[in-house]
Structure formats: C-alpha cells, structure tokens
Fold each of these.
Amino acid sequence: MAIISIQESGLLFEPNAADYYFRLQGDPGFTPLSKFGVSEMDFGWYESQRKRCWLIELKDYSHSGNPLGLSDKNSREFLMYDLIQKAKDNLLVLASIWYSLPKKKQLESSLPSEFKSLPTHAQPLNLAFVLKVEDTMAFQTTAQSLQDSLRNKIQGQSELLGIRENTNVFLFDHLTAIEQGLPLRVDERSTAGSKQMKKGKRAKR
C-alpha cells in the first residue's frame, strides 16, 4: 500500500512502503547545480521487489499546455531536446558519485544507497520518460521511433560512463507506464503542474 502521493504533470507518484524514492528538485546538494542550468528528472525510485533503479520524468501533453501536442514537428523536437538534456544531466549527477568526481561529497547525501553504485545486470538503471496523453493508441503509433531516437542519443553518454549494457531507456504513455509497474496513477482532480505531498517515506541515505 502506498504511503505517499505526489502530484506531478497530471499524475500521482505513489511508491510502495518498501520502496525508496528521492527528488533532486529542491535538494540542498543539488540546488547549487541547478543555478548553472543542470536539470533534474522528476523522481528517482528504487523498485525493491525487482531490484531496479529508476529515474522517471513525467510530462503532461493531455491539456492545453501545448495545444499542438506531439502532432507538431517543433513540439516533438523540443520534447526530445528536453528529455535528452535531462537524461544527460542526471547521468552526470550519478557519475559524480560513482567515479568520485569533485561534486561527490555534495551530492551523495541526496541519493539512496542503491544509486551510489554502478548499475549491474542484476540491478540495472532504467530511465523512464512518461507522457500523459489524451489518445494513447495514437501515441503508440509513433512511440517506437521516438524511443529509438532517445536511446540513440543517450547511449553515447552511457558508453562513456561504462554503463551502456546495464542501462535501459523507455518512452511510455501513462497507461503503459502503469501497466509496466511504475508507481503512477492518473489524478483526475488535479490540474497540470500542481504538486501536493502527503505523509510519506523519503529515501534512506
């Protein structure tokens, strides 16, 4: 049973009590870097049952925040740029800890222990980009090409960091993400971009 519920992009993030999560947004270790344009993904989540580390980014394309949605070329290009930048920045944050780079001490208290070691075959790192869309069937007709493009753009960084074989990249519509076991639920009452947090369990340090 979930003990936490956080609104983000028209969805509720609700990890189980046995799982750990973190948010870099507003974290004291990360905030100084955000001033230099380093971007964060919405959630880090350790899925204890399957021993997987997840970085999750949520986007709401179901409302008028972008009236043209993914049907517009410029919209797709901006989305891809944004997601790729977030992935690269977050991989560098993790690499700072894995390889004892100058910001290791500043950042390592922001993350649960499972994220402080290089991903392995037994405990991979999954990057999930989840789009809340009005028409999931229509989205799925183009999702594969978008996901392939994301993977191609990100695999260079993964190779340089020595984690390519143990890192996965996924692009999901919100319903597929829920079916795949991500701790998400549609928030019918919320408006895009609102956030609310109830009593919950932060990541162990």
Note: The chain has one domain: 6-186.
Amino acid sequence: MIESFLDSALIIDDKEEEVSALLNLLSTNEIFFRYYHPEDLKKRETPLKSTKLIFLDLQIEEDKTTVQNVSIIRSIFKQVIGKEFRSYGIVLWSKHVDEIDELRSRMGNDAESYNLPLFIIGLDKTKYLKAGNFDSLLTDINVVLKENVASNFFIFWSNLIEEGKTNTLRSIYSLVPDYTKLQQDLQYILYKLAKNHTGIPDRIQGYKLEHDAVKAMTNILHYDITHQPVDELSLFTENTIYQYSGSEADRNKIYSSLNSKLFLDLQNIDQAIVFPGNVYKIESDSCFFSVEDSPEGAVKILIEVTPPCDFAVDKKAKRSRVLGGFYVKDFASNSQRDKFNGENFYKELNGLMVDNTEQSYKVRFDFRYFGSISEDDLKDAAQYKIMFRFKEKLFADILQKLSSHTARLGIPFIK
C-alpha cells in the first residue's frame, strides 16, 4: 500500500549518518526526498514544499526531555509547515507509545498554526541501525498502517483518487483521436459537459461555466473511484457497534457539519445570478413569502425552486418560483416543534450549519408560501441576500416533496 502512495518524503533528524541508509532506500525506490537538520529548519523563513510523509526523530535534541523535544518540534512545524502544506503523515522514530501520544496530544492544539498530520505512527529506529539497513522499512510501515484506521483509510483512499484520476483523464482525452486537435476538441468536450451539468442557459451573463466543467469531471471521477475494488481496505469489524468518544453535543455538531458538507454549496454562489437551489435571507419585512408566526429568533429565508428543465430554457417573463421558510437554533417547546413538523412543512433538515458560527440549525420550508417572484427582486441584496445553494440531491428532494404537496387533490367522499 505505502509503495504506491509514497512518492515524496521529508526527513528531519539531527544525525544524518543514522538515516543515510534510509536516504539510500528512498533513492533506490525513486522516491523524491529532502533531508534537513533541525537547526537548518529553525533558521528557515519560508514554508516547505508539501511531501506525502515526514520521517521525524522525536529526540530532536538529545539533552532535552520528551516534553521539551515535542515543544521544539511544534515550533519548527509552525515555522515551516504552515497552512498550505498538503495532506501528509508522520513516521516518528520512537520506542515508546506514550511518547507518540504526547506528540499527538500537543500537536492537537496547533490546528490554527499549521495543517496537522492526518496520522502519526511510530517505528523504532534502533532496529534498522542494528541491522545496518532500512530494507524492511516499507514492509514495517504497511504492517503498522493496517493497525491504524486513520492512516489505513487515508493512504488507501489517496491511492484510489490517484488511480481514478488517471482513468478519468485517460477516458476523456481518448475521445480526441487526432492529438494535433487536442486543445480545440477537449475545450469543446469540457464545454458540453459543463453545459449539461446544470442545464445552464446561454442567457445568463457572468456565470463561471468553469465551475460546472469541474463538477462534471468530478462526477466522472466519482464513478471511476467508487467502482474500484476495496478488498485491501479493512476498517470495520462485523457485529461491532462503534461509539463516539465525545459528548452528545459534540456528536450532534459533527452530524451538522457533515450534513452541511454533503448538502450545501457555500462557494459557487453569486447575488447577481439566480439559480435553482439558491437560498436567500429575507431582508424585507413586507415580503409575501415571510412565514408568519415563525419561532422567536428564527431567520426567514426562501429558496429558488424553479424546475431545472424550466430553468434551462429562456424564460421570457424572467420570474422565479420560490418557497418560503426559516431556520432556528431550536424550538421553544415540543408543541412548537410539532407545529412546524406538520404536513405543510419540509421538515427533513434538523441539523445544518448554515453560517460561520458552527451552530446547528433546524430548517423548515412552508409549502403554503409558494409562488413566483421577479428575478430582479432576487438579485436585490437589500431585499433578498443570497446565503448558499442546496446541492442537487437535497434540492431534488425538496422539489419532489413540494410537487407531491401541491398535487394533492383529495376525494369529496360522503361519509
């Protein structure tokens, strides 16, 4: 596993002679590496380039205690790793598990200073020094990785991404048989993929079609990744119930964060571009779609729910279908909760982070506040301020439940 993942390494050690055999091993396996003495890194003023793995000597200064050495390591990382350093893991030269845990624990406080390693595993350097070589190193790393869920999944998943990326690019580029026309024809293919992704009409000016080209390619990549075998990956044991280590409040916070990552697009939005799935904060007190009797502290919102098939054609009237709703931290009572869980409401969203406060909100849309509005009004931030966009799966579910609600006919049955 590690062999296909490891293409670059950083070695931080105060004794180059002790890792010279490691440098030879990396060179023999054509793995790009850089060696640094800790003192050189202390003087460095610019961040290091990203590498996949960092080999790190815990006893970075032999006359210091473990706690002192951990502090020195953290200081170096704050200076040379930074926030732009890509995902990486650490192989720590240490004989003792408690020392590894000490580094993990202290580094956990540095998330604001530099990107934390996705995993830290420990190996005993004296084993290789006694053998006079590091020949078994990659095999030993694989053994340890399989015992560590974080590292096992990260490396396996990273390998899948790389293989899937290669397959996706190969399949798209192969659609151009004449290599001399690659630039022209590939641009055309990407354009058609982008247009197809959301059915964006030509009439919208200023829309970054490049976003949709990336999304379309990512959808193809998703297929190429998820259909690869995962026989080598081992994460779960049958008949085991997994528990979260923290509090219920922290667990619910995780759920809300995951839901937001799955269902909200907070980046690809533009006040000047009205798009199905856009969610707006209602700024006007007189808005027809402002839900009456909303809970105290609720923020009133509306969502653009024009069906994608209608959006894809030129709407001469330039009017959008919208649905009113609100979000609130919590309901004041069970009766209030029940009130907004009735058949008139879209009530699936009971934990979303909709802003930068890391606060979990309950979101409701009232099917009775459904109608049309001018696109020009939606573009006016003084009336409706864009907040985010619901991703395709959630938007489709809202549209389906809205359609079911509005299509209820009822039977005038004599009883």
Note: The mean pLDDT is 89.
Amino acid sequence: MRFFKKIKSLFGKDGGKMRMKNTVRVMSGLRELNARIRKNNLRINEWVDDYLNWCVLNGEPINILTQWCISKDLEERFNRQGGRFLPTRKERRLFQEEIPRVIKLFTENDLRLNWWITFNRSYLDSGRISGSLEEEYKRMIEVLADSSGATRDILFIDWEEDILRGRSKPNQTVLENVGGFIKQSALEIEIERHSKWARKEAGLKQTDEELKNDVKFQIACEVNEGEFLSDSKTSPFGGEFILIPLEVAERYDFFIVFAKDFKRRIVAVLSTYPWRLKV
C-alpha cells in the first residue's frame, strides 16, 4: 500500500518501526481496550500502528469503518418490545461510553477521524426486513447517537444506497464452487451458526437445504465484500482504513479468500452485537 512506501522513503528500510509519540499513545490505549472487551479477542495487528503513523506523518485523517447489521432478528425484537424499538443496554453503553472513549483517545492525541457507521442489510432475502421497520430502527439509533453527542464525529450511511449503489452481490466463482475455496469444517461451523440464528433469533422456518444454500450465498457475498473493501480502486477509503467491528472478528473469516490481509485491519474495541436482546 502507498503509505508503507512513503514511510520507507522518510525513514529508510525499517521506517515503519519509527513511530510518532501520539501514534504510540493511541495504539497503547486501543490495545488496552482490546484486551478488556472479551476473552480470546483478536489482537490488534502491527499494520494498524503503521497505518496510523502514516496518517500522522502525512496529516491525513484516520478512516474507520463500523458495519451495523440490519436483519431479520430485528423483526423479532420489535415484537418482543411491544411493537416498538427501545435501545438495549448495550446500545446505550455503546454511544454513551464506548464510542466517545475511542473518539477521545484519538482527538486528545491530535488524530483526526473519518468514522463511518454503515447500515448493512442481510445478503439474503430471508434475512431482510421491511423498509418501514428498517427506517424506524435506524431513526432510533441515530436519535440515541445524537443525544450522546457521538454524531459530531460519526457519519451514518446506508451501505447499499450510499456505497454500492445497489444490492450486495456474490462472487460467482465462489458461489459455484464453495468447497473449492472454503474448508468443509469451516463451512459446517458456519451452517450450524447460521441455522441457530435463523431458527432461534430470527424465527425463520427453513429446511436444512435452504439454510445450507443461504450460507453458501452469504459466504460468496462476504468474499466479494472483502475484495471490494481492500481494493484501492473500489474501496470508498482507497483500501486504507481500520475496521472497528460490532461483531466478533471471526465473522470476517470469509472476507480473506481474495483479500488475504483483510483481518489485519480489525481493531476490536467495542462490545459486540449491541442490537441483540438477551434470549
């Protein structure tokens, strides 16, 4: 990537290791947060240190992407909350404590941010909710964020309308031969995970074959998305960003099929699945 070349030109062969003080302070703080979120959390890769340092040296803002899942389990939640959306404890904590803490860590060390939270619909027809229900949920989240002051530093956008200008698509090569790209053990684990979510959280009534086909389609879409985000020509960030997820890092395992280094950009410092009600 271009920032590594510029760092080397400034400092020589080992330039990536010579870091600015504010880079070191921010990365130390992020690693402390990362260690506290959950056991066996994915550690922050040194690539992130280099990316932040390049941004500091070149006066560029840090690009941050956080993807917010909009899927069928919100329909179940809406019903369980009495025909409305009320913020969960995790959603409140996210905007009142966790996100402001991360923003403060950057801004107190004079690092500028471009933080995008994208609302991402399910890849699957079976996982989608009505447009009116989606809008009601997004309004609730944006009001919650606004009341905490977090929207001053965050841009909420729709993944399909604002980024893709259309619906997410699968990688056809992978879709036609999932077994040629994904280990059978990994595929079985994903089928089991998805089946549990579909039947227990989303309330879907599908056959085993339908669930299996949905998983293959989803994997092919994730492969495509990983490549799209990593490619400097297609990525809205020019391929240069960090990912602060709201799901466990393992949910990005299939993004790496054609983007081998995708997961090195993950900075897991927020609580996961804030939209879920306790089952």
Note: The chain has one domain: 2-265.
